[in-house]
Amino acid sequence: MGTRNYERLFSVSILTLDAERDDSGAVVMEDGEPVFPRLRGYTRNQDDYPQYFRKREWFSIDRGDSRRTYVLASDVVFLKAVRNTLLFVLVVAPLQAGIALGLAMLINRRIAGINVFRTIYFMPVVISMVVVAMLWRFIYDGNDGILNNLLAAMTFGAIQPVDWLGNTWTALPAIMAMSIWQGVGFHMIIWLSGLQTIPATLYEAADIEGSSKWQTFRYVTWPGLRNTAILIMIIITMQSFTLYPQIAVMTNGGPLDSTQSVVFQMVERGYGKQDIAGGSTISVFLFLFVLSISLLQGWMTRGRK
Amino acid sequence: MTLDRATRLMGSYFLLLFIACIFIFPIIFMIVSSFKPDLQLLQDTSSVRALLPVGDISLNNYREAFERAPIGLFIFNSVFITATTLIMSLFLASIAAFAFVFIDWRGKSIVLSLVVATYILPFETVAVPLLLLVNKLPWIGTEGVTWGWINSYQVQIIPWIVRALEIFLFVQYFKDLPRDLVEAARVDGASWFQVYRKVVMPLSGPVIATVAILKFLEMYNNQFIWPTMVVQAEDYRPIMVGLQYFFQLNTAWGEIMAYLTIITVPVLVFYLALQRAFIASIASTGVKG
C-alpha cells in the first residue's frame, strides 16, 4: 500500500541551472549556445540529489542571463500523453460542437432534398473509427496522399508535400481533423433534436419584430439550446478523453511521443508490458477525471429540470 | 425579391453540396480504389480519377486480401459475436428493465440508480481490472473445466451483454407504457413472465430497434481495445483486430481498401436502408436524464 504508483506517474521537479563558466567567468559557448552542466550529474546522483533521482528532462525554458530551468519528470511519456489528451479535448470539443451546430442549423430547413444531405453528413458516424483511421492514413500519406495532391493542385504546386502523420507538429492536428470528420454527424443530430424543440412561433415573433439573423440566433436559438449545449460538451469531452483507436492504427504514439494518449498508455502498460500496477493507476486517474466531469455536469444543470 | 431568394437558395445548395463532398469523397475513394491495381491507384490520386471506377478495374485486390488473411474467419467471428451479444442483450436488458418498472421490490430505486450511474463510465476505465478478472475465471466447455477466458468467444461476448445504456433505454420506454394493461393482465391471472412476453414486449418494437442498432454498432464497429487485449489467437479474432494484418503494408493499398470495403459496405447498406431508425437510435443516446 502507498502512493508509489502515483508518484511514479506524476512526480515532477524543477531544476534551474547556470551555464558553465570558464576560469575568467565568461560563459562557455558552443555553436553559439551556452553550455549547461549535464543533467545526468543530478538525476543519477541519489546521495546528493534524491529528489531528482532517475528523472528525465520533460522540457526546459530559457530564463535569460545564461540560466535555464529544466522540468524533470519521472514518467515523461505519461505526462506527454496527459498533455496530448487534454490538448485533444480542448481543441476537438469546442470545434466539433461548433461545426456540428453549424451543420444542424444548415439542415434544419424545409427545402427539397434536405434529407439526402442529412444522410450523407451522418454517414461517417456508422463507419468504424478503425476503418476511418486506416483510410485516412492513405489520405495523409507523405508521398502519394490525396491531401498533398489536393493542396498542390489548388495552389499550383506552391505547397510542398507534408508527411502529416510523420511530423511532430502535424500528427496530432491531423488526428484531430479526422476525428472531427468522423464524429461531427453524431453531434449534429443531437443539436438538431434540440433545435426542433424551439417553438416556431418564437421565430415568427422575432421575424415580425425585424430581428437580424444574428439577433435571432443570440436571443431565440441559443437560449433554447442551453441544456443541449451542456450535454454535447459532456459527451464530446468523454469521447475525446478515451482517444485510442486513431492512435493505435495511425501512429502508435509517435513521432517522438507527440501523439501519445492516456488510454493508449494505459493499454500499452496494462496489457503490452504486463505492468498491471501502472495500467491500473492510469485507469483510476481516468475514472477520477470522468467522475469529475459528470459531477460538473450535475452542477451546471442543477435546478433546471 | 424572388430573384434574390432564388440566388440565396442556390447558394444554400452550393454550400450543402460542398460539405457533402467532404463527407462522402473519402468513402467513395475507398470503394473505388479497392478495384484498382496499386500502381494505378497511386497515379489516380492526383486527379479526379481517384473517385471514378476507370482504368484497369478488377477484383484482384479482393482475391489477394483473402489470400493474405483469413478474412472469412474474421467475418464469421464478428458476425457470431455480434449476433449472440445482441440477442442476449435484448432479452436480459428488457427483462431487467421490466423488473425495475413493473414489479415492486425493496431497494429497487437504489439498484436502478447504481446501474444508471455506471453509464457515465467509459469501458476503457475498467479494461485493465477486467483483464485481470477474466484471466482467472473458470469455464465449462467441451474440454471440461478450464481456467482463464483468454482466447475465446465468451470473453468477447459476456462483458458486453448488458451495459447500463440498454437497461436505461428500456426503462425509459416501459415507463411510458400504460400500466393498466399490465395490471389487467395480472388480475386475469397471468404470471410476470407471461405479462413480459405477451403484453409488454409486443408493444416495444421501437425501443427494441433502437437497442439492436446501438448494440450492432458497438459490437461490429467499435470492438477494438478489448479484443486486442484478450484475443491473441487468430481463431477468435474479430474483423477490426484482423485489420492488423494490413497495418504495416504501406505498399499494398489496393488490398487494404478491399478489406476496408468488405467490412464497411454491409454497415452502409444497413444504414441506408434503415436510416431513420439509425439516426433516431443514435440521437436517443444523447437524450438522457
Low-pLDDT stretches of chain A are none
The rounded Rg of chain A comes to 25 Å
Number of helices of chain A: 13
Integer-rounded radius of gyration of chain B: 24 Å
Quote the distance from N terminus to C terminus of chain B. Answer: 46 Å
Using DSSP, what is the number of strands of chain A? 5
User: What proportion of the residues of chain A form beta strands (DSSP E)?
Assistant: 5-15%
What's the story with the biggest beta sheet of chain A?
Answer: 3 strands, antiparallel
Please give the order of strands in the largest beta sheet of chain A. 1-5-4
List keywords for this structure.
heterodimer; A: 305 residues; 13 helices; 58% helix; B: 289 residues; mainly alpha; two-stranded antiparallel ribbon; 2 strands
Describe the protein in words.
- The complex is a heterodimer of chains A (305) and B (289).
- By secondary structure, chain A is mainly alpha-helical.
- Chain A contains 13 helices and five strands.
- In chain A, a hairpin with a 2-residue loop joins strand 2 (29-30) and strand 3.
- In chain A, helix 3 packs parallel to helix 7 and helix 10 runs antiparallel to helix 13.
- Chain A starts with a helix and ends in a 5-residue tail after the last helix.
- Helices cover 66% and strands 3% of the residues of chain B.
- Chain B contains 15 helices and two strands.
- Chain B has helices at residues 2-33, 38-44, 60-68, 71-101, 108-117, 127-134, 154-157, 164-175, 179-187, 192-200, 205-221, 225-230, 239-242, 253-273, 275-286, and strands at 138-141, 144-147.
- In chain B, a hairpin with a 2-residue loop joins strand 1 (138-141) and strand 2 (144-147).
- Chain B is flat.
- The two termini of chain B are 46 Å apart.
- At the A-B interface, helix 3, helix 4, helix 5, helix 6 and helix 7 of A face helix 1, helix 6, helix 11, helix 12 and helix 14 of B.
Task: Summarize the entry for a quick read.
The complex is a heterodimer of chains A (305) and B (289). Chain A has helices spanning 4-10, 40-43, 76-107, 114-122, 129-139, 146-154, 171-195, 200-208, 213-224, 226-241, 245-250, 262-272, 276-300; strands at 12-18, 29-30, 33-34, 56-64, 67-73.
